[in-house]
Automatic annotation (TrEMBL):
<keyword id="KW-0963">Cytoplasm</keyword>
<dbReference type="GO" id="GO:0000028">
    <property type="term" value="P:ribosomal small subunit assembly"/>
</dbReference>
<dbReference type="InterPro" id="IPR036847">
    <property type="entry name" value="RimP_C_sf"/>
</dbReference>
<comment type="function">
    <text>Required for maturation of 30S ribosomal subunits.</text>
</comment>
<dbReference type="InterPro" id="IPR028998">
    <property type="entry name" value="RimP_C"/>
</dbReference>
<keyword id="KW-0690">Ribosome biogenesis</keyword>
<dbReference type="Pfam" id="PF17384">
    <property type="entry name" value="DUF150_C"/>
</dbReference>
<dbReference type="GO" id="GO:0006412">
    <property type="term" value="P:translation"/>
</dbReference>
<dbReference type="Pfam" id="PF02576">
    <property type="entry name" value="RimP_N"/>
</dbReference>
<protein>
    <recommendedName>
        <fullName>Ribosome maturation factor RimP</fullName>
    </recommendedName>
</protein>
<feature type="domain" description="Ribosome maturation factor RimP N-terminal">
    <location>
        <begin position="17"/>
        <end position="88"/>
    </location>
</feature>
<dbReference type="InterPro" id="IPR003728">
    <property type="entry name" value="Ribosome_maturation_RimP"/>
</dbReference>
<feature type="domain" description="Ribosome maturation factor RimP C-terminal">
    <location>
        <begin position="91"/>
        <end position="159"/>
    </location>
</feature>
<comment type="similarity">
    <text>Belongs to the RimP family.</text>
</comment>
<dbReference type="InterPro" id="IPR035956">
    <property type="entry name" value="RimP_N_sf"/>
</dbReference>
<dbReference type="InterPro" id="IPR028989">
    <property type="entry name" value="RimP_N"/>
</dbReference>
<dbReference type="GO" id="GO:0005829">
    <property type="term" value="C:cytosol"/>
</dbReference>
């Protein structure tokens, strides 16, 4: 039995809402395929912003809770991502990408490179025309060079 992504989002929202207590606020729940993996993103915020420690603490509370949902709504294994739009702010300009060199980023493309349209990894270089990214493909680290004009969206990402 396959459950629609909207239903999974509703079930997860209902399950996690009660445990995300002030000062935290549940902003959004997203579920979908990212590259070859299913990703459940739980976006949270608090007035002074979310820290990496906050996401780790929330993961410890939320992850076991998701395992208690019966019947299991997830059709496939998934990665849990707990984050804030603040930590994952968009990188919309060449300058913001230059400033992000050395950071962990998520890059969505207009056209696939080697059948991949979304890369997540360490931005190691950006010369104004091409981005160089080190990313994990299963257990191996690979490097990809991405022409800037093929970038649909870029944002900072959180590595958990």
């Amino acid at each position: 039995m396959s459950i629609a992504a909207a239903d999974i989002i509703a079930i997860v929202t209902e399950t996690v809402s009660p445990v995300i207590k002030a000062p935290f606020e549940l902003v959004d729940v997203e579920y979908g395929k990212l590259g070859g993996d299913y990703v459940l993103s739980i976006l949270v915020d608090k007035p002074e912003g979310i820290t990496v420690e906050d996401t780790a603490d929330l993961t410890e509370v939320i992850s076991p809770l998701l395992d208690t949902i019966k019947p299991d709504p997830f059709p496939e294994q998934y990665m849990l991502e707990i984050s804030s739009h603040g930590l994952e702010r968009p990188l919309k300009t060449k300058e913001s990408l230059e400033n992000a060199v050395g950071s962990y980023v998520n890059i969505s493309l207009y056209q696939a490179i080697d059948k991949v349209k979304v890369f997540e990894g360490d931005l190691v270089a950006f010369d104004g025309d091409e981005l160089t990214l080190n990313y994990k493909d299963k257990t191996r680290t690979k490097t990809v060079t991405i022409p800037y004009q093929t970038v649909a969206k870029a944002r900072l990402a959180v590595k958990l």
